[in-house]
Write a structure and sequence with these properties.
The chain is α/β, with parallel strands linked by helices. The protein folds into two domains: 60 residues, no CATH class; 175 residues, Rossmann fold, CATH 3.40.50.300. It is built from twelve helices and five strands.
Amino acid sequence: MLRNPTKQKLETLGLNGMLDALEAQDATPDLYRSMLFDERFALVVDREADTRDTKTLTRRLKSARLRHKACLEDVDFRAARGLDKSLVAQLGSGAWLTRRQNILLTGPTGVGKSYLACAFSHRACQLGFSAAYHRATGLYSEAALARVDGKHRAWLRALTRADVLVIDDFGLMKLSDEERTELLEILEDRHERRSTIVTSQLPVEKWFDAIGNPTLADAIMDRLVHNAHKIELKGPTMRKMTRIDPQDESKDVDKK
């Protein structure tokens, strides 16, 4: 007699995980008949917790706007590109996030830098951290627009709140004075407070030249390289190793 009203209350309260678990137990009563009430109730509560965790992760990933649907479990270690499996496993634990460390990913185009950056960001979201993905050129453009609109401080605060900031394709062209200043301001607000992932086709030692101004380059590099994990990828492009069905638009072109 109480079952339908109970289900209605669960739905009203937004406890959809508990509702699904209760309906599953009703659908297959023989599987649960021998279980104690506490055991059955624990299953119901666990389903609710799992449902909420999934929704929270979905929200974080949507907010992050990652370029690739990437996860560390799918990273390909078979290709000879200098990727240290033990280091990836270490970073997968999330200790670099609690220590506010950075990750610098370098290597030629197509070796999977962006995929790895997104995979590390995905793991961060799984561990309860927030993330934000930006291509370097887009980041500077957003900053310039925010200044024109008088919303730069609010934009910068929002960027600073992200536990992980991905700056993808850094150093494709030499920075302008405005871009150098903007990058330093972003990194200064994040230094030893949040983590940053940078990908670049240039090796780290050539970033000084890409930044341009020696004084600002020193300051920017200090905030990026200090306490950072460096991953230098090598080898041919990974894109040639996978055939992509033109009918399947759900597959990522840039490989892992």
